[in-house]
Amino acid sequence: NTNKKLIMKGDYDYLKLLNISCVRIMKYDYLIVGSGLFGAIFAYEANKKGKKVLVVDKRPNVGGNIYTENIDGINVHKYGAHIFHTSNKEIWDYINQFAEFNRYTNAPVARYKNELYNMPFNMNTFNKLWGVVTPEEAKQKIEKEKNEAGIKEPKNLEEQAISLVGKTIYEKLVKGYTEKQWGKRATELPSFIIKRLPVRFIYDNNYFNDIYQGIPIGGYTQIIEKMLDGIEVRLSCDYFENKEELENIAEKIIFTGPIDKYYGYKFGELEYRSLRFETEELDVENYQGNAVVNYTEYEVPYTRIIEHKHFEYGPSLGKIAGGKTAQKTIITKEYPDKWIQGKEPYYTMNDEKNTSLYSKYKELADKDSKVIFGGRLGQYKYFDMDKVIIEALKCVKEELK
Questions:
Q1: Any catalytic annotation for residue 200?
Q2: How far is CA 208 from CA 88, 212, 233, 304, 391, in A?
Q3: Phi and psi (nearest 5°) for 218?
Q4: Is 77 exposed, middle or buried (0-12, 13-18, 19+ CB in 10 A)?
Q5: H helices then E strands: how many in the chain?
Q6: What is the pLDDT of residues 114-157, one digit of tens each?
Q7: Would you call 334 a catalytic residue per the annotation?
Q8: pLDDT tens figures, 54-90
């Protein structure tokens, strides 16, 4: 009976051409949908415990959004900049078993018109804005602006931001960037989006407070490749386009795509913000002098420019393998984009409306013994990379007891 014949990988495409349907192509313990960090970690840990795993990904490469591609000796972050940071030594040690990390420190620069400011807001920023030198002078300046605004009960994001840092910082470094990111004017955005704005009264441009920080030497893709070594992976394989084959191929599914899409948008669409990237290779050795430059003017359509070589070269700028000099550079302009079905969802919109909608899908998922949802889309929450690892290892511990 060909419908129930067990066949080996590689035969499926042939049978598909002959229009022969197979109930069981191969039997797996877990089908993992998505080869990003969450899916790859689960696959790696399950494989170590002797579980039979199949990983599928709709993209032609592994790695999800942390995928990096080496172009002319430069590791390009294809889906936006990713800087690993954590204060959890266990998580730092875990990720370091797959790659050696450099000592990159995230110190973005904000550009407003032709003025450049250090981020996050610190004494270097305040000195450039007002000429103040001491922390006390900076505090007085910010408090004066907050008092002048007189906002006691912020009604929108604009009022909330001004009540936290004053008008000058808000107008130059917050307003335009935030409006581009959300696709709405700040006066139309709810105040709860900005609960706090970090202000540091020290001369320190390190964006993160975490103890451990860096970029893997050689890029992120190698990490995922090592995790998936020896595991069957099918690329350019969209779960939804191959659902008939895949839905009964394994005992359980680890699903890292959008939870609402998995359930056919039963309760309606969750909202996201998307991104669009424009990448250029330039015939200059050093374009902007920093890995990340944020553009805070609303009139500039992109939110930031990434110069990828600066993530890894640091003091030895321009040096690639063998000590040769990279005479070119690669930059990426990042444009916030409205999300519609068919576009890549990057940022979850965790407002009251969407949180309420997600809770309905979560309730459905909790009753579903066939599937486990993971990652930012499966759990509808923005995660830094260290938090993804924590969630994935938690899932492994609970599932593979």
A1: yes
A2: 14, 9, 35, 18, 21
A3: 100, 0
A4: buried
A5: 14, 16
A6: 999 999 999 999 999 999 999 999 999 999 999 999 999 999 99
A7: yes
A8: 999 999 999 999 999 999 999 999 999 999 999 999 9
User: Which of these, 392, 342, 394, 348, lies nearest to 32 by C-alpha position?
Assistant: 392
Which residues, 6+ apart, have CB-to-CB distance to 96 below 8 Å? none
Of 45, 159, 307, 334, which one is the catalytic site residue?
Answer: 334
Does the annotation count 304 as an active-site position?
yes
Q: Which residue has the tokens 């007085």?
A: 140
Contact assessment for residue 172 and residue 294, using Cβ atoms and an 8 Å cutoff: no
> Would you call 103 a catalytic residue per the annotation?
no
Active site residue 196: yes
pLDDT digits (tens, 9 = 90+) for 308-358: 999 997 544 445 545 555 689 999 999 999 999 989 999 998 888 999 999
177, 200, 262, 312: which is the annotated catalytic residue?
A: 200
Count the residues in the chain.
Answer: 401
CB 216 within 8 A of CB 38: no
Q: What is the C-alpha separation between 54 and 280, in angstroms, rounded? A: 35
Its pTM stands at 0.88
Whole-number Å distance between alpha carbons of 105 and 211: 11
Given 196, 352, 366, 398, the catalytic residue:
196
